[in-house]
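Okay, can you check this protein?
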Amino acid sequence: MLRDWKALAGIVQRGEKKGQPMKLNQVQTNSLCILTTRYPGSTEKERYIFAVFLIDESYEGDNYEEGYVTTGSKYRIKLSPKEAHSMLFWNYHSNDNRPEVPAWNSGLHRYFDDEQAVQILKDISIIKKGTPDENLAKEFLHYFITINNIDLESISEKKGALTRNGI
């Protein structure tokens, strides 16, 4: 994934559509792609962000091929293991039905709004301070807020499942 900077939507694993390619909806050029994972045996609370990139190409998918997002842009950042573990996904995201519960449930991907994207990019720029990626992280954040016409000062506090629980 980090070699090609391409994330695939995946293949349905269960149910009547098992084996069929998954599609991506609402994906646009200049959206932020956030790559997350967690260790086997760990809890969903421990899901962390290990890389981000600005999408410059996407394919929704069809009945024969899964969807994907990719980039050739300079706006792509991978986090070291130590940095990644401080970027818990559920600090930023919550589910609509039970926003206080960090639960992935089904599917391989999640959609989020530009405000959540800015919160993530802002925290990455803080984490990357003093590293070789410091300037890129700052430039990435600035570029994202500029192209989306976002006032950085108007960004609210994080409302992810973990922050709602005070964790």
User: Anything to note?
Assistant: The helical segments are 81-85, 114-127, 134-147, 161-164. The mean pLDDT is 91. The beta strands are 6-8, 32-37, 48-54, 57-59, 68-70, 76-78.
